[in-house]
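Handover notes (outgoing to incoming on-call)

Open items:
1. Glycoside hydrolase family 92 protein: sequence verified, structure written out, both below. Nothing else pending on this one.
2. Nothing else urgent.
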Amino acid sequence: MIDRVDPFIGTDVTDLPERTGLAASWWWPKPSIGNTHPGATYPLGMVSACAYSGAYPTGYGKYDLVTEGVPTQLHERQLASGFTHFQQSGTGAIRKYYNYFRVTPMLQPLDALGELWEIDAESAAPGSYSATLASGIRCEVTVGPKSAVHRYTFPSHRDARVVVDFSLGGLSIPFGTTVPLRAHLHAVGPGIAQGEIVVEGAPLAVHVECDTPQWRQMLWYDRRLMPGGTRLDFDYIRPTTLRPFGLMWAGPTEPGQVVELRFGFSLRGVEQARENLYADCGPGPSSFEDRRAATAATWREHLGAISVDSPSTDRQTVFATALYHSLIKPCLAPGESPFWPASGPFAYDIATMWDIYRTQLPLLTTLLPERACELAQALLYISEEEGNLPIGYRMARGADQFSRQGSALAHTFLADLCQLGLGIDWDWALVHMHNDLRRMYGEDFLLRGEVHPISHTLDLAFGYWCTSVVAAQVGDQALVAEFAPLAARWANAFDAATGLLKDSTFYEGGKWNYSFRLVHDMAARIALAGGDDAFVALLDQFFGFGADAVTQPGVRPGIDEMARGYALNRFEGLNNEPDMEAPWSYQYAGRPDRTAEVVHAVVQQQFATGRGGLPGNDDSGGLSSWYVWATLGLFPVAGQNLFLINTPAWRESRIQVGAAAFTIATSGFVEPVPGSPAQYVQSVRLDGAPLERSWLTGTELHRGGLLHIELGPVPSRWGTEIRPPSTSQRPPSPHTGAT
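Glycoside hydrolase family 92 protein structure tokens:
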């Protein structure tokens, strides 16, 4: 699988074949670009490294900030002023752009620092990135869990240099710069330096080693060298007083001479940064090849957790890359909390929970349950120390509130872990889950029964249901009884006259986009809309069955253009995440055939190879993980320990679920091609026994087995009678099964 990954997918403006049929009726309000980067990454690791142009939002690429439509270009070609560390993956305007410790190999004087060179001969693979600058310097980077190694191959020159800029952070767009609050830099000895910058309130330390001790080593400030200087200290810095500063090695090079830099990073000081470097890369002086090979091996293991059978190399590439993008974030950094003394789990770049809780976190839970528990414990530490379970959390002081976007989303992740019987101190978790529900919008929810934005009413009601799962696990039946009527308040969000959510404000979408969420009592939800037929009619209208093709927003779309699009009340086609679970709502109304048709249109027409192969922002793997699940023919109902079954896009696939293997095999499968019709489930067998229901429990998936799906060209009766469970009919009960 690793050989099929293309890290360049999603780095450019969306460039998909012209949509036809159902997909042509969907409207994309958000930016038409994946916002990914091709830099070196480690699975769920602290560090990434990539060429830096200063463009939005990762620092890589050619584009300016955009929140709607097609982004405008800052540059005509790929350019770079150096190579930076710590990039977001697929996110949008989240205001933490990182890109710290820029490394620039140069043949020019220091005054030229910051010049943008054209880059050529780019290549990337999981764990490594390389490019050649117009200056003729070949540049390669790789990373470990808490480290990065750079290798530069120089032409002949009398005074080549490698410059590390400690002052740079953020992007080269208005208001995109990150200025260190304070900084310290110390030249420890020949080829060795240490330092720390405090950015967004977080102390980021570095230990750096250069394998050319014969070169001159100098500090610099405001692009002026400081011969003989060994320390730079800034107790406070503000934007108007910032002057660039950093470290430089310089000396003559022979043709093809290689210079290697090794970085260890820590949020707990320079000594721990040094320990992290040696733990990742050994004592040196050279470690590029070993580190690249070790990281590639780790990626090979992670990506090997799922295999798919297809003769199409393009389809394999899209899938492998989606799985790769799904496992980059969040950053798990055990023992690295800079804000409290606990030595246990720590995490950042939970950016952002409303994008990842439905599909990316369930994928993490399925493939890497131990890492999922590590993340859960990190969330609980954050709550204990900072007062709330975060909706977003970056390398910055304090959890991000994101008060408009969502509430109580971590509860969904925790409920899934609890129902699987995974090892968390659930008494401890229950305390923080309960307390968190009463913060932010929670008080209004308790007093008035609903809150606005109205989607928070759904969040909080489900948060109470998820918390009741944990209360049942620990035997607190009083809390289970207390939470039941609060969990039922999801119904307060809906207008019975329309079958949709009440009028309100909405984040990134409208009431149609949020109205088909998989709430925990879908039977009552469908009854509220007037029954199966009325509910399906609403869904058909939303997905554009029988509707005309639409025109997507262009560059800098105007207010009127966007208003006309929003007025369509149409599915966003995975251009964004608010309605990503809506296709599976059909299954609760006995129409798995409709789910098959919508998902087939998305999978076959909204994802492709090439830099423009994503329909919208990947959002820390939120988009890519949807594709992984959808093509497997499974969809997680987050928080409810359910996986809905539908048509897979592969003849056969295999998922390594912890220590067990789960195989999805088919008969009657026809390899899909562009424009081909959907296929429909005819019957299902689980470990040889007929399965009339259209779902699995998480426990069934996690214990492994064989799911055999018979497919055909026309809809069948399968899945039309026995509906997925509604939680009012299945009250929470203590976990009894083993995983």
